[in-house]
Design brief:
This protein starts with 5 loop residues before the first strand and ends with a strand. By secondary structure, the protein is mainly beta. The chain is 0% helix and 55% strand. A hairpin with a 2-residue loop joins β6 (52-60) and β7. It has one domain (6-37, 47-132): Immunoglobulin-like. The strands form two sheets. Strands 1, 2, 3, 4, 5, 8, 9 and 11 form an eight-stranded mixed β-sheet that branches. A three-stranded antiparallel β-sheet has the order 6-7-10, with no helix packed on it.
Length: 133
């Protein structure tokens, strides 16, 4: 699996971090990619917070990272964007995003987002999951 990361300056309403529950989802290979532009605006996809599973955002030795799974409950392959931001929400914040392409129906794709930029060492951590066309 190929992963690409891009720091982004975003103007978006991020969802509060939430831990998904349930059993461990079966990881399926996907092809993560970087967004073609460094700026993300609201409306680039459909908000799908229910797709987020076992989300963990933590600080260790001054670096924030996030891990989890995105579950595709639809009947066709979908592409998801996961954006994580650490610090107070505002009009312009630094965040990190990963794109998980072609997540198979009823499958889960794992993700890891290291070195998330922060505007506050104390957090909090916010996450947004979008299904994109």
């Amino acid at each position: 699996m190929r992963r690409a990361w891009v720091p982004t300056i975003v103007l978006l309403a991020v969802l509060p971090a939430a831990c998904g529950g349930g059993t461990d989802p079966a990881a399926r290979p996907t092809t993560p990619k970087t967004s073609p532009t460094p700026t993300v605006s609201v409306g680039d996809g459909i908000a799908t917070p229910e797709a987020l599973r076992r989300f963990v955002c933590r600080e260790q030795d001054g670096q924030w990272s996030a891990t989890g799974y995105v579950h595709n409950a639809s009947t066709s392959p979908r592409t998801f964007e996961v954006t994580v931001q650490v610090g107070p929400q505002g009009d312009s914040v630094s965040a990190r995003r990963i794109t998980l392409e072609d997540v198979r129906p009823d499958a889960a794709a794992p993700f890891e987002i290291p070195k998330i930029p922060t505007s506050s060492d104390a957090g909090p951590c916010h996450v947004q999951v979008l299904a994109v066309e």
